[in-house]
UniProtKB/TrEMBL annotation:
Residues 62-160 form the THUMP domain. Transmembrane segments: none annotated. This is THUMP domain-containing protein. The keyword RNA-binding applies. The keyword RNA-binding applies. Keywords: RNA-binding. It comes from Conexivisphaera calida. GO terms for biological process: tRNA modification. One of its GO terms (molecular function) is RNA binding. Gene3D superfamilies: THUMP superfamily. SMART domains: THUMP (SM00981).
Amino acid sequence: MDEFDLLFTTYRGGERRAASEMARFLRDLGDESADIEITEFPGLLLARTPADPFELIEHLRGIAEEEPWRIRSILRVVPVEITTDASIQSVVQAARGLASKIGGDETYRVDVEKRGSSLSGRELIDAVASAIDRKVKLESPDWIVMVEIVGDRAGVSVLREVDVFSSVKAKRDRGNRADINARPADSSP
């Protein structure tokens, strides 16, 4: 798939179930004909949709909170803002274009996930970081410049941590809130 708006993962062997599950969630948002591709990389899928990827993330969070059993196969969903060639120059250009989202006093880090590419992750991180005139912070930055390389294509996004959906984390957080709410009040004097 040359252009994609979503990259999502599942368990190895769960690709067909994850594709059907994603199609259902996208239908909830009005997309009756999403283009979903199971890649050659185990557990990795791509989708092209007219639905807003960030709206999908919020929709998935709501489902994880209210009906967590509906999310069975999808593990992680990353919105993709720009799809480009998987070359350092193209990725840097895309990241530079999206970097205006990062305020002058805000921080960021660059995350690179490579699949089927011989590009150097270190070189790519260094090139992107040198093109963005903001402060880098590796732990708890305000923004993440996410580069997802799939073969000869790259998906680039500038995201807040909450813009990436993890079903495992969402369900764990929901469980932790339920545990806190279920604890009896301390009756000691």
